[in-house]
Amino acid sequence: MGLTKGFDTITNCRICGSGNLSEILDLGLQPLANSLKKKPNNKEDKFPLSISFCPVSSLLQLNETIDKEVLFDHYVWVTGTSGTARSYATAFAERIIEIAGIALEDFIVEVASNDGTFLKPFIGKGFRNVLGVDPAANVAEVANKRGIRTVPEYWSSALVNELILEFGNAKVVIARNVIPHVSDLLDVMAGIELMLREDGVGVIEFHDAGKIQTELHYDSIYHEHLCYFSIDSMTCLLKRFDLNPFHVEKSYISGGSWVIFFSKKARKKSAELDQAVRMEDDSNVNHLSAWQDFARRASEHRQKTLEILDSLR
Questions:
Q1: Distance separating the N- and C-terminal Cα atoms of the chain
Q2: Helices 185-195 and 157-167 sit at what angle, rounded to 10 degrees?
Q3: 138-181 pLDDT, tens per residue?
Q4: Domain spans of the chain?
Q5: Which of 97, 101, 239, 275 sits in a 20 to 30 Å window from 197, CA-based?
Protein backbone atom coordinates (compact mmCIF):
# COMPACT_ATOMS: atom_id res chain seq x y z
CA MET A 1 0.00 0.00 0.00
CA GLY A 2 1.15 3.54 -0.64
CA LEU A 3 1.08 6.70 -2.66
CA THR A 4 0.39 6.36 -6.38
CA LYS A 5 0.61 8.75 -9.31
CA GLY A 6 -2.44 9.75 -11.33
CA PHE A 7 -3.20 13.13 -9.80
CA ASP A 8 -2.32 16.82 -10.09
CA THR A 9 -2.06 19.45 -7.38
CA ILE A 10 -3.71 22.82 -7.97
CA THR A 11 -2.24 26.18 -6.95
CA ASN A 12 -5.08 28.40 -8.18
CA CYS A 13 -8.81 28.61 -7.49
CA ARG A 14 -10.88 26.39 -9.74
CA ILE A 15 -13.37 29.23 -10.38
CA CYS A 16 -11.56 32.56 -10.43
CA GLY A 17 -7.92 31.53 -10.85
CA SER A 18 -6.74 33.34 -7.71
CA GLY A 19 -3.49 32.03 -6.27
CA ASN A 20 -4.42 33.23 -2.79
CA LEU A 21 -5.68 29.89 -1.47
CA SER A 22 -5.71 29.14 2.25
CA GLU A 23 -5.25 25.49 3.24
CA ILE A 24 -7.96 24.39 5.64
CA LEU A 25 -7.60 20.69 6.41
CA ASP A 26 -5.20 17.91 5.43
CA LEU A 27 -6.66 14.40 5.74
CA GLY A 28 -3.43 12.66 4.70
CA LEU A 29 -3.26 9.75 2.28
CA GLN A 30 -6.65 8.17 1.59
CA PRO A 31 -7.95 5.44 -0.74
CA LEU A 32 -10.57 6.32 -3.33
CA ALA A 33 -14.23 6.04 -2.38
CA ASN A 34 -16.03 3.01 -3.88
CA SER A 35 -12.73 1.12 -4.00
CA LEU A 36 -13.34 -1.58 -1.41
CA LYS A 37 -11.17 -4.63 -2.00
CA LYS A 38 -12.35 -8.23 -2.04
CA LYS A 39 -9.38 -9.49 0.00
CA PRO A 40 -7.38 -7.86 2.81
CA ASN A 41 -4.07 -8.26 0.97
CA ASN A 42 -5.25 -6.68 -2.30
CA LYS A 43 -3.26 -3.59 -3.29
CA GLU A 44 -4.80 -0.32 -2.07
CA ASP A 45 -3.89 2.86 -3.93
CA LYS A 46 -3.84 5.99 -1.79
CA PHE A 47 -3.85 9.65 -2.76
CA PRO A 48 -3.37 12.93 -0.85
CA LEU A 49 -6.62 14.51 0.36
CA SER A 50 -6.64 18.13 1.50
CA ILE A 51 -8.88 21.19 1.07
CA SER A 52 -8.30 24.92 0.64
CA PHE A 53 -10.55 27.99 0.62
CA CYS A 54 -10.54 30.87 -1.86
CA PRO A 55 -11.56 34.19 -0.26
CA VAL A 56 -12.29 35.69 -3.70
CA SER A 57 -14.81 33.12 -4.98
CA SER A 58 -15.77 31.63 -1.56
CA LEU A 59 -15.06 28.17 -2.98
CA LEU A 60 -13.89 25.31 -0.75
CA GLN A 61 -11.92 22.94 -2.98
CA LEU A 62 -9.63 19.94 -3.05
CA ASN A 63 -5.96 20.64 -3.63
CA GLU A 64 -5.52 17.35 -5.49
CA THR A 65 -7.25 16.34 -8.73
CA ILE A 66 -7.37 12.62 -9.46
CA ASP A 67 -7.36 11.73 -13.18
CA LYS A 68 -11.01 11.58 -14.25
CA GLU A 69 -10.41 8.35 -16.18
CA VAL A 70 -9.42 6.68 -12.90
CA LEU A 71 -12.63 7.84 -11.21
CA PHE A 72 -15.32 7.70 -13.86
CA ASP A 73 -14.52 5.53 -16.90
CA HIS A 74 -16.10 2.52 -15.18
CA TYR A 75 -18.44 3.87 -12.53
CA VAL A 76 -19.95 1.61 -9.89
CA TRP A 77 -22.71 3.89 -8.55
CA VAL A 78 -26.00 3.40 -10.41
CA THR A 79 -28.64 5.98 -9.48
CA GLY A 80 -31.62 3.71 -10.02
CA THR A 81 -30.58 1.36 -7.21
CA SER A 82 -31.74 4.00 -4.71
CA GLY A 83 -35.45 4.03 -3.99
CA THR A 84 -35.09 7.52 -2.54
CA ALA A 85 -33.52 8.76 -5.78
CA ARG A 86 -36.29 7.21 -7.88
CA SER A 87 -39.05 8.87 -5.90
CA TYR A 88 -37.18 12.18 -5.79
CA ALA A 89 -36.67 12.07 -9.57
CA THR A 90 -40.40 12.41 -10.18
CA ALA A 91 -40.76 15.44 -7.90
CA PHE A 92 -37.59 16.93 -9.41
CA ALA A 93 -38.99 16.64 -12.95
CA GLU A 94 -42.31 18.17 -11.93
CA ARG A 95 -40.59 21.23 -10.45
CA ILE A 96 -38.49 21.74 -13.57
CA ILE A 97 -41.53 21.47 -15.83
CA GLU A 98 -43.34 24.06 -13.72
CA ILE A 99 -40.47 26.53 -13.28
CA ALA A 100 -39.02 26.29 -16.81
CA GLY A 101 -42.44 26.21 -18.50
CA ILE A 102 -41.38 23.57 -21.00
CA ALA A 103 -43.54 22.13 -23.76
CA LEU A 104 -43.65 18.46 -24.77
CA GLU A 105 -41.59 19.10 -27.89
CA ASP A 106 -38.78 20.90 -26.03
CA PHE A 107 -35.29 19.42 -25.87
CA ILE A 108 -34.07 18.37 -22.38
CA VAL A 109 -30.43 17.44 -21.70
CA GLU A 110 -28.85 16.03 -18.56
CA VAL A 111 -25.11 16.19 -17.87
CA ALA A 112 -23.74 13.06 -16.17
CA SER A 113 -27.13 11.37 -16.43
CA ASN A 114 -25.94 8.00 -15.07
CA ASP A 115 -28.58 5.33 -15.83
CA GLY A 116 -31.21 7.90 -16.81
CA THR A 117 -33.22 7.73 -13.58
CA PHE A 118 -33.78 11.50 -13.57
CA LEU A 119 -34.72 11.64 -17.28
CA LYS A 120 -37.18 8.76 -17.06
CA PRO A 121 -39.96 10.84 -15.40
CA PHE A 122 -39.87 13.33 -18.28
CA ILE A 123 -40.38 10.47 -20.74
CA GLY A 124 -43.20 9.15 -18.57
CA LYS A 125 -44.92 12.56 -18.80
CA GLY A 126 -44.79 12.56 -22.59
CA PHE A 127 -41.49 14.30 -23.27
CA ARG A 128 -39.66 12.37 -25.97
CA ASN A 129 -36.87 14.77 -26.92
CA VAL A 130 -34.51 13.97 -24.03
CA LEU A 131 -30.81 13.17 -24.03
CA GLY A 132 -28.37 12.03 -21.39
CA VAL A 133 -24.59 12.36 -21.51
CA ASP A 134 -22.44 10.21 -19.21
CA PRO A 135 -18.78 9.13 -19.43
CA ALA A 136 -19.24 5.69 -17.87
CA ALA A 137 -19.84 3.39 -20.82
CA ASN A 138 -21.18 0.60 -18.59
CA VAL A 139 -23.83 2.87 -17.05
CA ALA A 140 -24.72 4.60 -20.35
CA GLU A 141 -25.36 1.17 -21.83
CA VAL A 142 -27.88 0.47 -19.07
CA ALA A 143 -29.68 3.75 -19.82
CA ASN A 144 -29.86 3.08 -23.54
CA LYS A 145 -31.28 -0.38 -22.94
CA ARG A 146 -33.99 1.27 -20.83
CA GLY A 147 -34.93 3.51 -23.75
CA ILE A 148 -33.23 6.65 -22.41
CA ARG A 149 -31.03 7.96 -25.21
CA THR A 150 -27.56 8.47 -23.71
CA VAL A 151 -24.22 9.47 -25.22
CA PRO A 152 -21.26 7.71 -23.51
CA GLU A 153 -18.89 10.71 -23.45
CA TYR A 154 -17.41 13.26 -21.08
CA TRP A 155 -19.33 16.55 -21.26
CA SER A 156 -17.24 19.29 -22.84
CA SER A 157 -17.69 22.36 -25.01
CA ALA A 158 -16.27 20.39 -27.98
CA LEU A 159 -18.87 17.63 -27.48
CA VAL A 160 -21.64 20.22 -27.10
CA ASN A 161 -20.80 21.72 -30.49
CA GLU A 162 -21.33 18.27 -32.01
CA LEU A 163 -24.58 17.74 -30.11
CA ILE A 164 -25.96 21.11 -31.22
CA LEU A 165 -25.30 20.21 -34.85
CA GLU A 166 -27.26 16.98 -34.40
CA PHE A 167 -30.01 17.96 -31.95
CA GLY A 168 -30.08 21.75 -31.64
CA ASN A 169 -29.97 23.77 -28.42
CA ALA A 170 -31.79 22.70 -25.28
CA LYS A 171 -34.63 24.39 -23.43
CA VAL A 172 -33.43 22.74 -20.21
CA VAL A 173 -29.94 21.63 -19.18
CA ILE A 174 -29.72 19.64 -15.95
CA ALA A 175 -26.56 18.95 -13.96
CA ARG A 176 -27.32 17.07 -10.74
CA ASN A 177 -24.54 16.39 -8.26
CA VAL A 178 -21.92 16.58 -11.01
CA ILE A 179 -20.47 20.11 -11.14
CA PRO A 180 -18.61 19.52 -7.83
CA HIS A 181 -17.04 16.42 -9.41
CA VAL A 182 -15.57 17.84 -12.62
CA SER A 183 -11.89 18.67 -13.04
CA ASP A 184 -12.51 20.62 -16.27
CA LEU A 185 -14.91 22.92 -14.40
CA LEU A 186 -14.75 25.96 -16.65
CA ASP A 187 -15.02 23.98 -19.88
CA VAL A 188 -17.99 22.01 -18.52
CA MET A 189 -19.74 25.26 -17.62
CA ALA A 190 -18.89 26.72 -21.02
CA GLY A 191 -20.60 23.68 -22.56
CA ILE A 192 -23.72 24.23 -20.47
CA GLU A 193 -23.89 27.89 -21.49
CA LEU A 194 -23.39 26.90 -25.13
CA MET A 195 -26.09 24.20 -25.08
CA LEU A 196 -28.72 26.35 -23.38
CA ARG A 197 -31.25 28.18 -25.56
CA GLU A 198 -31.56 31.94 -25.13
CA ASP A 199 -34.92 31.36 -23.42
CA GLY A 200 -33.73 28.23 -21.65
CA VAL A 201 -33.32 27.30 -18.00
CA GLY A 202 -30.34 25.58 -16.42
CA VAL A 203 -30.60 23.50 -13.25
CA ILE A 204 -27.65 22.59 -11.03
CA GLU A 205 -27.93 20.54 -7.84
CA PHE A 206 -25.00 20.68 -5.42
CA HIS A 207 -24.18 19.59 -1.87
CA ASP A 208 -24.61 22.58 0.44
CA ALA A 209 -21.25 23.75 1.81
CA GLY A 210 -23.12 25.40 4.67
CA LYS A 211 -24.46 22.01 5.80
CA ILE A 212 -20.98 20.52 5.56
CA GLN A 213 -19.60 23.33 7.68
CA THR A 214 -22.22 23.66 10.42
CA GLU A 215 -22.94 19.93 10.81
CA LEU A 216 -19.28 18.87 10.50
CA HIS A 217 -19.73 16.65 7.43
CA TYR A 218 -16.02 16.11 6.94
CA ASP A 219 -16.88 12.59 5.76
CA SER A 220 -18.24 14.30 2.62
CA ILE A 221 -14.68 15.23 1.69
CA TYR A 222 -13.30 12.65 -0.72
CA HIS A 223 -11.53 12.56 -4.06
CA GLU A 224 -14.61 12.60 -6.31
CA HIS A 225 -15.80 15.87 -4.73
CA LEU A 226 -13.40 18.51 -6.03
CA CYS A 227 -15.56 21.49 -5.07
CA TYR A 228 -17.88 22.29 -2.16
CA PHE A 229 -20.23 25.07 -3.20
CA SER A 230 -22.20 27.64 -1.31
CA ILE A 231 -24.82 29.70 -3.11
CA ASP A 232 -22.29 32.53 -3.19
CA SER A 233 -19.53 30.47 -4.84
CA MET A 234 -22.00 28.86 -7.27
CA THR A 235 -23.25 32.33 -8.21
CA CYS A 236 -19.63 33.39 -8.78
CA LEU A 237 -19.19 30.44 -11.15
CA LEU A 238 -22.43 31.15 -13.03
CA LYS A 239 -21.65 34.85 -13.39
CA ARG A 240 -18.35 34.02 -15.02
CA PHE A 241 -20.42 32.69 -17.94
CA ASP A 242 -23.04 35.45 -17.84
CA LEU A 243 -25.58 33.05 -16.38
CA ASN A 244 -28.09 34.49 -13.93
CA PRO A 245 -29.46 32.56 -10.93
CA PHE A 246 -33.11 33.37 -10.22
CA HIS A 247 -34.40 30.66 -7.87
CA VAL A 248 -33.20 28.02 -5.38
CA GLU A 249 -34.88 25.12 -3.64
CA LYS A 250 -33.68 22.73 -0.94
CA SER A 251 -33.00 19.07 -1.67
CA TYR A 252 -32.47 16.30 0.87
CA ILE A 253 -29.99 14.50 -1.41
CA SER A 254 -26.46 14.05 0.05
CA GLY A 255 -27.63 15.07 3.50
CA GLY A 256 -28.65 18.54 2.33
CA SER A 257 -28.27 20.15 -1.10
CA TRP A 258 -29.38 23.17 -3.10
CA VAL A 259 -31.04 23.16 -6.51
CA ILE A 260 -30.30 26.43 -8.29
CA PHE A 261 -32.17 27.59 -11.41
CA PHE A 262 -30.51 30.02 -13.82
CA SER A 263 -30.94 31.57 -17.26
CA LYS A 264 -29.08 33.57 -19.89
CA LYS A 265 -31.50 36.45 -19.68
CA ALA A 266 -31.83 37.95 -16.20
CA ARG A 267 -35.10 37.08 -14.48
CA LYS A 268 -36.65 38.43 -11.30
CA LYS A 269 -35.03 36.71 -8.33
CA SER A 270 -37.36 34.66 -6.17
CA ALA A 271 -37.97 35.29 -2.50
CA GLU A 272 -36.44 31.87 -1.82
CA LEU A 273 -33.16 32.90 -3.43
CA ASP A 274 -33.05 36.22 -1.57
CA GLN A 275 -33.71 34.45 1.74
CA ALA A 276 -31.06 31.79 1.10
CA VAL A 277 -28.47 34.46 0.34
CA ARG A 278 -29.33 36.32 3.55
CA MET A 279 -29.05 33.10 5.56
CA GLU A 280 -25.58 32.48 4.11
CA ASP A 281 -24.51 36.01 4.97
CA ASP A 282 -25.70 35.55 8.55
CA SER A 283 -23.97 32.17 8.94
CA ASN A 284 -20.51 33.33 7.75
CA VAL A 285 -20.21 30.18 5.62
CA ASN A 286 -18.28 32.20 3.02
CA HIS A 287 -15.63 33.42 5.45
CA LEU A 288 -12.17 31.91 5.94
CA SER A 289 -12.48 32.01 9.73
CA ALA A 290 -15.58 29.77 9.63
CA TRP A 291 -13.71 27.10 7.64
CA GLN A 292 -10.73 27.35 9.97
CA ASP A 293 -13.13 26.67 12.83
CA PHE A 294 -14.53 23.71 10.84
CA ALA A 295 -11.01 22.26 10.61
CA ARG A 296 -10.48 22.71 14.34
CA ARG A 297 -13.75 20.95 15.18
CA ALA A 298 -12.96 18.11 12.75
CA SER A 299 -9.60 17.54 14.44
CA GLU A 300 -11.26 17.53 17.87
CA HIS A 301 -13.85 15.03 16.65
CA ARG A 302 -11.09 12.80 15.31
CA GLN A 303 -9.27 12.88 18.65
CA LYS A 304 -12.42 12.06 20.63
CA THR A 305 -13.17 9.16 18.29
CA LEU A 306 -9.68 7.73 18.77
CA GLU A 307 -10.04 8.03 22.55
CA ILE A 308 -13.33 6.12 22.44
CA LEU A 309 -11.80 3.38 20.31
CA ASP A 310 -8.80 3.14 22.62
CA SER A 311 -11.05 2.80 25.66
CA LEU A 312 -13.04 0.03 24.00
CA ARG A 313 -9.89 -1.82 23.01
A1: 25
A2: 20
A3: 899 999 999 999 999 999 999 999 999 999 999 999 999 999 99
A4: 79-283
A5: 275
